[in-house]
Structure prediction request, 361 residues.
Amino acid sequence: MHEHSATPVAHGGLIHAEIEALGLRPDAILDVSVNVNPYGPCPAVLRAVLAAPIHRYPDPSAGLARRALAGGLGVDPAGVVVGNGAVDLLWTLARALLRPDDVVGIVEPAFSEMRAAATRSGARIEGFRTRAEDDFAVDLPDLDAFLAQQRPRLLYLCTPSNPVGIGVATADLLALAERHPHTTIIVDESFLSLSERHADAEARLPETIVRIRSLTKDHALAGLRIGYLATSPAIAARVEAERPPWSVNAPAQAAAVATTTPEARHFVAACRDRLLHERDALVAALRAIDLRVHPSETIFVLVDLGPEVAATRLRQALLERHAVLVRDATSFGLSHHLRLGVRPRADRDRLMTALRMELSR
Ligand SMILES: Cc1ncc(COP(=O)(O)O)c(C=O)c1O
Prediction:
């Protein structure tokens, strides 16, 4: 077995140098380390990408895409900003809104890029950590007290969360925003459309909230890079001012428009239904080999391996011996947990065979 590096992997997905060093071909790997819709992209979105006029400059601030995405949400296009994936927008938000020594609250464990971007902007991070004993549910009275005490400039909250997949009700978010108007709440809804709370995706939120949406997961456009945010026109203008012109390419803008068509919306709804069933089957299979699985509302699950099993070692063994790539949750502060993305049945069977062999169950 190769020595694993001291720095835990910060993200899922294939790392070319690692795969090459192991003599593996990318296509031979079963990748459950990312949470991308395995059935996408939708044909309507693919057609739009292929037809995009790449010989011309794209619209400097993605005007058509902004209008289409705003229409889908029923908000003012002036409050929408399009970026190269949600992560690009998190970094742009930090540049636009944070000054050195501002306080940023982060509901953790969480996708790590808000912490990284805020740190880079010189902000002071205050983590609000949810607990494994509570299945990482957000204790709202505790969060309320945390906000009253810290009065952060920004609060970052993912719903559903990553790596757990547990959500916060829209009504609770509204109440928090109302009680803490000095804090801009960044609600990362990157997995909302692929979750049981998908109806919340249509809910109206106040303009003190910045809603972040990725299109790389539900529409399987991880390599294309596309996402957007919706907020007040004033915040959107500050974010847009931090972005170079033409920074979102023409195929990505065309894809964004196509995701708002009825064909693409029905496609995502059908994929969600299928994937949530497949998630239930994955949870049952994992529990059948005595693994604790935290409840998830979306298309990935967080698995507790128990104190004897180190996630980093298991990731390495699964990759080297089975060409199965899982997300070691050590970088989330969870060194005995794996996050597993939901895949179709044949892939699930392959994953379970590999896990049973490595865990001797
Ligand atoms: C909660 C969350 N937000 C944002 C992202 C990044 O999304 P994108 O591919 O749109 O940059 C991820 C990726 O895993 C994520 O888990």
The longest strand covers residues 103-108. The chain has a mean pLDDT of 96. The first helix runs from residue 16 to 21.
